[in-house]
Amino acid sequence: MLGETTRDRKAERREATRREILDVAWSVAREHGLAQLTLRAVADRVGMRAPSLYTHFASKNAIYDAMFGSAWLEYEQVSGRELRDLPDSPRGRVRVMARSFFEYSVADLARYQLMNQRTIPGFVPSEEAFAPSVRTVQQAIDLLGSAGVADRDDVEILFAIIGGLVDQQLANDPGGDTRRRLLDRAVEMWADGVGLPPDSETSGPEPH
């Protein structure tokens, strides 16, 4: 009949299998480390022979690529929600942005390593997988621009400060809050250095 949509059930099954493979790959990476991910381990958990994985992913790096892209796409969606309603205070905007990335990062070591560290020798994400990362970084640059920070070196220093605290938290106090408690202080020190006005000079409460 006119107006009816023909479902491609084969494509749906294939996509469901790809999602299952990626979910299993993340589980293996979280249990044993990213570098210890093997096609055999993934295939065993999915319930198929390792060669059968090649019908869904051309190589192990292709699995890493899909994992990389999905992780950044998820963060793009998370940050999009969390940065929707920002305080008027420039410093407040930066604190919200910093907290958003910090919390997402420390929640999952394997995910953070794949997204932000060169953990896998020879792995370079494809342009498609890298695209959400590019968009997310540009979102952060735009947010900082709205707060009055235009110098790219200042932006990179802030990224390094946040990333450094994430690295320290994951390396030295996983599941704790020692570096989380330093985040606002670090942002304030950076804000002083780049000359952002104190919160008292602006108005508007920060969202909770």
Concise overview:
By secondary structure, the protein is mainly α.
How many separate helices?
8
- Which structural class do you get from the secondary structure elements? mainly alpha
The CATH homologous superfamily of the largest domain is called Tetracycline Repressor, domain 2
Largest sheet: number of strands, sense, barrel closure: none
CATH architecture of the largest domain: Orthogonal Bundle
Uncertain stretches: 202-208
CATH topology of the largest domain: Tetracycline Repressor, domain 2
Shape: elongated
Distance between the termini: 51 Å
Description:
This protein has 208 residues and is an all-alpha fold. It folds into two domains: 50 residues, Homeodomain-like (Arc Repressor Mutant, subunit A, Orthogonal Bundle); 134 residues, Tetracycline Repressor, domain 2 (Orthogonal Bundle). Helices cover 65% and strands 0% of the residues. The protein has eight helices and no strands. α4 runs parallel beside α7. The longest helix has 24 residues. The protein is elongated, with a radius of gyration of 20 Å. The C terminus is likely disordered.
